[in-house]
Specification:
It is built from 6 helices and no strands. With about 140 residues, the protein is mostly helical. The protein is elongated.
Amino acid sequence: MKKVFFSLGLVISLSVAGQPHTPMTPEQKALQKTMKTLAKGLTRIQYGILYNDQDELLAGVRMIKRTQDGFLTRHGEALKEYMPENPKFAVSLAKLSEKNIERYIRMMRSDIFSKKDYSRITAGYTHIMQECVGCHRKLRKRKW
């Protein structure tokens, strides 16, 4: 009896593991690459905050700024795929998030160069993370 259950469990798990994975479109791959670059920029900012490293902070801010510029031009169509029932909402949400992130980046740059107030820099970092999480929660369909 144990052998039957074990064999049945093995067959089920192998059949599920063998299910084909839906391949990503080139637009989705490009979007994923951009998101990974944004995540690396945020990681550099966090490292700069933790270790009071102004160079690392600036590198992270530059990375996010460079990646953020023209985001919707490059990835607008891919964003619409994540929310096919309301593609206008996906684009408007991304526009709003982009505008807010740009504002927080400007604030952080100002604080890095003038005040060196790490609590304000940390607040800017937190606001950027909230923008990212908010957009991902609304656009992604995956249930965790």
